[in-house]
């Protein structure tokens, strides 16, 4: 079990760090309702995302893709990306190096 708190970075969105090391961080994002958003943003970290449950419309550098349970993909460093929840669910993201701003 993780000792990290659950935080609310947006409306109907939760975030919890599951594991961290200076070179890698695993984070769970919960989307509680249709229309909840992960706002467009970018960061220097390479990110991989695994869709544990739910359905999402992801935008990565102007390319839009719908994803569902079992899908996974990599977001390159500094790519502008975000998502809209189509069905409530949970994403598991890994970042390298870790996102110190989440600690």
TrEMBL record:
Gene3D superfamilies: Jelly Rolls (2.60.120.10). SUPFAM superfamilies: RmlC-like cupins (SSF51182). Residues 35-92 form the Cupin type-2 domain. It holds the Pfam family Cupin_2. Transmembrane segments: none annotated. This is Cupin domain-containing protein.
């Amino acid at each position: 079990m993780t000792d990290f708190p659950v935080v609310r970075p947006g409306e109907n969105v939760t975030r919890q760090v599951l594991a961290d090391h200076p070179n890698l961080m695993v984070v769970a994002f919960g989307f509680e309702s249709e229309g909840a958003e992960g706002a467009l943003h970018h960061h220097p970290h390479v990110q991989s995302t695994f869709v544990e449950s739910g359905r999402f419309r992801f935008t990565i550098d102007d390319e839009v893709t719908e994803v569902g349970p079992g899908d996974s993909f990599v977001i390159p460093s500094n790519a502008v990306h975000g998502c809209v929840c189509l069905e409530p669910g949970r994403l598991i993201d890994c970042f390298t190096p870790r996102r110190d701003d989440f600690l």
